[in-house]
């Protein structure tokens, strides 16, 4: 029994490490490819700032592997972690002061509401998946256009990578290595999660909505806090908006199209409403000019309540 648990936890943690490491390789490769294609700096930042390839990989593998709570956890659990834990802790450490275009904020608030389209019926439908992918393209396109003047997705790190001279084959190699490693890591995460659910009798929803998203997206806390500390709150806000668009519209749309999964009643009654409410609260804070330490603490408290609700439901 102890050996089984050790194997399950070890596989899960190893998968998390692999996907986090490999996503950096993939991001570097894609930015390099963008520079080779002579994309403008704002376009590079707008497209890649919020992209979390490891989250996409885990969601797809879990959907194909028949673990719906883990698959949907990359959407709703991951979104809740970004909006509450990453933004909240980042603001507690370094308060966020930034004014975003009203249209971007309205798009940000509407994103989790649109996710409800995929929750109609017992399983996510391919029609809903297509609608979400179209909404994602429109939303990201608007963010890229808005960044022409506001530049809220610009990142010194991304700009530096975009202009760093490379041999033409290096970005392609990094992209291929990143995709391969992310796929392998996602398989480990799914395997470990399945074994923990069966061996430890842990609720699937708790693993899928809380444990896995928090483990995979822990780096988002750093991505939120460091730019604000260095006087670039626009980068922090851009990462937040872009990541939520990817998580909620792109990931869910891709899962619904590629491998429709069962939707549990708990997702409809707890996970989706919580993501909508917390995103609206974050939008309200940003509408007023940023997120203070006190407001960040409130977001963290809400996330703690969300975790407690899952623990209570699972016991």
Q: Summarize the helix and strand pattern as letters.
A: HHHHEHHHHHHHHEH
End-to-end separation in angstroms reads: 21 Å
The gyration radius over C-alpha positions equals 19 Å
Please state roughly what percent of the residues sit in beta strands, choosing from under 5%, 5-15%, 15-25%, 25-35%, 35-45% or over 45%.
under 5%
Q: Strands of the largest sheet, in order across it?
A: 1-2
Tally of contiguous helical segments: 13
Q: Mean of the pLDDT scores? A: 79
What ranges have pLDDT less than 50 throughout 5 or more consecutive residues? 152-162
- The beta-strand count equals 2
For the largest beta-sheet, the strand count, sense and barrel status come to: 2 strands, antiparallel
Helix content: over 70%
So what's the overall shape?
globular
Q: Helix- and strand-based class?
A: mainly alpha
Overview in brief:
By secondary structure, the chain is mainly α. 80% of the residues lie in helices and 1% in strands.
Give a description of the structure.
With 315 residues, this protein is mostly helical. Helix content is 80%, strand content 1%. The protein is built from 13 helices and 2 strands. The protein has helices at 2-36, 41-48, 53-64, 68-93, 102-114, 126-150, 156-163, 169-199, 204-216, 219-229, 233-258, 265-287, 293-314; strands at 96-97, 290-291. A two-stranded antiparallel ribbon has the order 1-2. α4 (68-93) packs parallel to α10. It is globular, with a radius of gyration of 19 Å. The model is unreliable at 152-162 (pLDDT under 50).
């Amino acid at each position: 029994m102890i050996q089984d648990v050790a194997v399950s936890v070890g596989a899960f943690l190893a998968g998390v490490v692999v996907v986090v490491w490999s996503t950096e390789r993939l991001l570097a490769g894609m930015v390099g490819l963008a520079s080779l294609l002579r994309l403008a700096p704002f376009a590079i930042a707008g497209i890649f700032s919020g992209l979390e390839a490891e989250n996409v990989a885990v969601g797809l593998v879990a959907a194909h592997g028949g673990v719906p709570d883990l698959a949907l956890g990359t959407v709703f659990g991951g979104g809740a972690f970004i909006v509450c834990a990453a933004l909240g802790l980042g603001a507690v450490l370094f308060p966020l002061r930034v004014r975003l275009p009203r249209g971007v904020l309205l798009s940000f608030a509407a994103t989790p509401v649109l996710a409800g389209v995929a929750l109609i019926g017992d399983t996510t439908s391919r029609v809903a998946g297509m609608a979400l992918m179209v909404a994602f393209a429109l939303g990201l396109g608007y963010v890229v256009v808005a960044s022409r003047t506001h530049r809220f997705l610009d990142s010194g790190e991304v700009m530096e990578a975009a202009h760093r001279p490379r041999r033409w084959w290096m970005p392609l190699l990094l992209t291929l290595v990143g995709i391969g490693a992310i796929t392998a890591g996602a398989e480990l995460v799914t395997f470990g999660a399945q074994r923990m659910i069966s061996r430890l009798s842990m609720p699937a929803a708790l693993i899928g909505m809380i444990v896995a998203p928090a483990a995979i997206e822990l780096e988002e806390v750093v991505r939120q806090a460091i730019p604000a500390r260095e006087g670039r709150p626009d980068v922090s806000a851009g990462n937040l908006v872009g990541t939520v668009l990817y998580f909620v519209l792109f990931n869910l749309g891709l899962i619904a199209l590629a491998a429709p999964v069962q939707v549990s009643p708990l997702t409809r009654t707890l996970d989706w409403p919580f993501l909508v409410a917390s995103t609206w609260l974050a939008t309200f804070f940003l509408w007023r000019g940023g997120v203070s330490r006190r407001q960040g603490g409130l977001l963290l408290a809400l996330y703690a309540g969300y975790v407690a609700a899952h623990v209570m439901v699972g016991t």
